[in-house]
Write a structure and sequence with these properties.
two-stranded antiparallel ribbon, cca-adding enzyme, domain 2, binds adenosine-5'-triphosphate, 469 residues, Beta Polymerase, domain 2, alpha+beta, 8-stranded mixed sheet
Amino acid sequence: MLKKLFNSLRSPLRRGKHPHSTPQVLNSSQHPINRGEISRYAISVVERLQQAGYQAYLVGGCVRDLLLDIEPKDFDVATSATPEQVRAEFRNARVIGRRFKLVHVHFGREIIEVATFRANHPEGDDEADNHLSSRNESGRILRDNVYGSLENDAQRRDFTINALYYDPATERILDYANGVHDIRNHLIRLIGDPTQRYQEDPVRMLRAVRFAAKLDFDIEKHSAAPIYKLAPMLRDIPSARLFDEVLKLFLAGYAVYTYELLVDYGLFGQLFPASAKALKQNPDYTDTLIRNALASTDLRIKQGKTVTPAFLFAALLWPALPARVIKLQERGLPAIPAMQEAAQELINEQCQLIAVPKRFTMPIREIWDMQERLPRRTGKRSDLLLENPRFRAGYDFLLLRESAGEETGGLGEWWTDYQDASDSERRVMIRDLSTQDDSSGAPRKRRRSGSKRKRAPGADGAPKPAASE
Ligand code: ATP
Ligand code: MG
C-alpha cells in the first residue's frame, strides 16, 4: 500500500543544476516513511548528535527498505561527528574497525551503527605516508578513514539506493544520487564509474547481487557489465571479510536466487572454485543438491528457524568431494582414509578463500562423517547414532543427497521410520537388516568404500569430463 502511494507520487522538484552537489529533497508528504516504523534507539542517537551540534541522519539500508515497505534489518546513522566525538556522547558506545572506523552504540541487544561522513579517496594521490586512506596497486581501498561532508559521504556510498538520508527531526529525505528514481525503477546502480568502484572494493559485486536478490531488483546494465570480468578480484579480499559476506549472501532468505545470480555473474566460481568445478563435471546433481540446500535454508529462515552455516557449507562443498576421493584412491589410499583426507583438503582449500571458523568446520566434518555411518545400522549402532548430537544434521543431509537423486537404497526412509518406531519395532527393523542382502548395511557385507555412496548418480567411475557450457 505504502509502496503504491510512494510510486504514485510525483517526482520531487530537483533543486539546482548539479544533481550530485545539491540533493533532491522529499518532505514528509512526498514519501511513505513515518517515524513510528523506526527504532526509537536509532532516532534517539540521531537526535542526541543533532542536539550536540552535529549533523546526523539515518542512512543506507534502513531508508531504502522503509521506502520499499520492508522491515529494516538494522539502522545505520551517518554523522559529521568523528568516531571519538560520537563515543563521547554515549555511555554504551564502542569504536570498532580499522579499515573503516565505526561506532557501535549499544541498547540492550540492539546496536545502532554510527559512521562518520567520509569522502571518496583522492585518486592518484601519493598515499605513501597517508595513514588515513590507502589503496593497493589494483585500486583496492585498504583504509577508508578520510572524513568529509555529507555530499562527499553520499558519493562514496556503493549504490544510489543506499545513499538516501532521512532526518527524523524534519522527516525529510535527502537524495544526492537519484536513489529514489532507482528505487521506483527497481534498479541497483553503482554511484560513479562502475569499474572503478568495483576495483576500489570488489565486495561491491557481491553486494550488488545480494541486493538484487533481496529486493528483486535488476542490476542496471552499466553496473552489471564489468562484473564478470572483475570477478577474479574477489580473490584478493581478506578471507574473514568474505566469510561474513557469504553468510549475508546465503542467510538473508533469498539464497536460491542469490546463487543463480552468483553463477550467472561468474562470482560463484571465485568463492567456491571446487564446487564450481563439480558444477561443470556433474551439473545436474551438483546444481540440484546446492539448490535444494539453499531452498530449505530459505524456508527455515522464513519460518523463523535457525540455520547453521556448517550445514550450508557442508552442502556447497559436498559435490566436490567424490572427484578428490577418487584421485586419492588412485594414489593408493584406501577408501575411508581417502574420504577423510579429501574432506580435510577441501576444507583447508576453501578456508584459504573464505575463512570458515573452526566452530563450523568441525561440524562440517561431522555431518560428512555421519554419511559414512548412517548406512551401518546393525547391533547397537542405530541407537548410538540416534543419540549423537549430529544425528539430525546428518540425517537431514542424507535426505538432501537423496533429493538430488543420489541412490542410497532407501536409507533416508529407513531412518525416518526408525525414528518414529517403538522399541520393539526398532528391534524388528534391525533384525530385518541382517536377513537382507547387501543393501542391509551390515558392516561386514557393506562395501565400506566411499566410492559408491560418495558418488553422485551418473558419476560412477571417474568424474565425467567438464560439460560444455
Ligand atoms: P542491509 O543492512 O540490509 O544488508 P545495508 O545497505 O544497510 O543493507 P550495510 O552493510 O549495513 O548495508 O551498510 C550500510 C550502508 O553503508 C550501505 O547502505 C551503503 O550506503 C554503505 N556501504 C556499505 N558497504 C559499502 C561498500 N563496500 N562500499 C560503499 N558503501 C558501502
Ligand atoms: Mg544496514
